[in-house]
Structure formats: C-alpha cells, structure tokens
Design a protein that fits this description.
This protein has 370 residues and is mainly beta. The chain is 8% helix and 38% strand. It is built from three helices and 28 strands. The chain has helices at residues 2-10, 16-26, 36-43; strands at residues 46-51, 59-64, 70-74, 78-82, 90-91, 101-107, 113-118, 125-129, 137-141, 149-154, 160-167, 170-176, 184-185, 208-211, 215-219, 227-231, 239-242, 251-258, 264-270, 281-284, 292-293, 304-306, 315-319, 322-326, 334-337, 343-346, 352-355, 361-366. The strands form seven sheets. It has a four-stranded antiparallel sheet.
Length: 370
Amino acid sequence: MKPMRALARKLSLTGVCAAMIVASLAVPGTAHAETTEGMRVWTAGLGWRVTPTGSEARFRGLAAVGRKVAWLAGSGGTVLRTTDGGRTWQNVAPADAAGLEFRDIEAFDAKRAVVLAIGEGEASRVYSTSDGGRTWTLGFKNDEPKAFYDCMTFFDSRNGLAMSDPVDGRFRVISTKDAGRTWQVLPSTGMPEALEGEFAFAASGQCLVSHGKRDVWLATGGASRARVFHSGDRGRTWTVADTPLPSGASQGVFSVAFRDSRHGVAVGGDYRPGEPSPNAAATTSDGGRTWHPAQRPPAEYRSGATWPRYTGPIAMVVGPTGSDLTFNAGRTWTRFDEGSFDTVDCAPDGGCWAAGEKGRAARLTVDHPG
C-alpha cells in the first residue's frame, strides 16, 4: 500500500478519487473490474453521506468545486452553496427567482457561478454571480416562444454553451465568452436536423457536457432513436450518432460523461417510476461517432453521470433508485448505494457530490479495509 499512497500524494489526489484509485489497485481483481465479486468487495466501502440542506427543493443542478465547496440549483428558484463540506448551506438564489425551475449550475470557485432556469419562453433564463450569490446578473432571457432550454456547459471559466430543444427543426445553441454575462445564438446551419419528437431531458444538467477546450456533446431522447450529437468546434458544427438506448416520450439518453475526447458513457432509460429500463447504458471510444451497449448496464433508470479525473476507467451514475460504479469504462456496472439522487459531480480535488429530491445533497465517502 505504501507505493500506492505515495502515488496518490504525488498526483495531489487528496480527495475521494485518490482513495478510489488506491483501493481499486489494492484489492485483487478490481483494478479493471474483470470480476463481479471483485467489484462487490470494493463497492462495499462506498456510500453517500447526506448533508442537511434545510430545503425541500428538488436539486437537479449541481456543481462540485471541491471537497468543501459545492453549489446546488433546484425547484422553486432555489440556489444553495456550501463552503464547509456540507455542514451548512446558504440560500444564495437570485432575488427574482422564486417562480423559476433551476436545472443546471456551473461553478468555478466559491464566488463565481452560472445558473440555468428552464421553461417555455421567458422562463428560460441564465444568471451569473461573481460574489458568492450576493448579487446576480441576468445574462439571458429567452425571447423565442418555441425555445425551451435544458442544459449548460463551460469549457473554462469564461466560454460556455447552453442548449434548447429544437426550434424550426434544429436544436438551438447559445454561446457566452464572458462567464455568462452575455449570450449569443449560434447559427443553426451546422446543426443536423432533429427527428420528429426529439428533445433533451433537463433531468440532471448533463444533457450537454464538454471536455477540453473545444469538444461538446448533446444527448437526446423522445423520438424513434436516442442520439448523441458531437461538436469539435465549440458548437459551430455538429455530427450525430444513434445510441442503443431505448427512446420514446419518456425514454432516451439523459446524461453523458467523458473521460477525454474519445472515451465516454451514456445513461438513461425510462424516467417513469416502476417502468423497466433495459439496456439503458452505452459506451464510446471514438468520441461519440459510434456507441455500444453496456454488457451489464445499471438495472434501472439513471439520470446523472460523472467521470472523475485521474480515475482511469472508473465512472459513476445515479438515479432515483440508486447509484452505480463501473471499473471498466462503462462495460459493466455495480450498484453501491440505494438512495435517491438525480445528479452527480466530482471536483478536480476528488470531492464527489450528489443531489436530488426533497433537498437531498450528499458527499461520497470511502471506508474500505484496504
């Protein structure tokens, strides 16, 4: 174990992700999850520690800044922030947001964050703050009656995108270059046509995700096929690929997560309680050009996904009926927690957070004999 701990320190992995790597390397058979029993042994030490938020909002927006700092965005215009690892949460919502449905939030530190509200017409809005939520700037209010914004992502602390369900047959994308203070609608000429009934699910803030300086992916459902769009030029031009996930009015790809520009996972299913969600996970190793069904997907619908830094093939998904982990880049998944969560995110320092219904917010903990 000493060499493994030394490696973790060398990589400056001081949070949960370091423990994940060390533990997986220390337990025989789990480094690449080649055995089901090996996965069960390791995941027995994982769990979510729920932190009291004092809120009953449903949090589908989550930004993990670190082990101490995280932001939540949810129903009833709620925005919360913690700077002490979840011991206390502060309500830092915009003053005029009481009737809004926040579904996505991106944060860069304890002071700077951008939050997205969904809905038809002017209900779709984007606010930004640079003082920890004491004041907010309304950077975007939708003026297109056909638009309905779902998700948002940032390449860095200034450049980001947000996306809407199709307008005149194509998904609409807006862009910011000043940390969300102003936004412009991008030309739709580089966007493939949407299928009849196709849309994105505003379920976890992860239907639009980015990696690196230019790559971004957009996940869809609702139509005859569940698809993932990809852009390598910050949303100017796009390609699209079918996935093997089921699709329909309540089915599709709800979340995607990428380790790098090539390796990614897609999860979803049917969000209706009690409905089966077979084959609701897929993987790609070519940046989303092709998708392959997971050999053993999560047993039920999953709405959120994250691929922590420095963890190699280890990724995590959550949903209303539990959380799952993969040790082999999404080929097989093992449940490690039964709690209800809608979204999940891991910070660069290894702190992982999840959030969901009835004000639930939690930090990932590791208690493994290794």
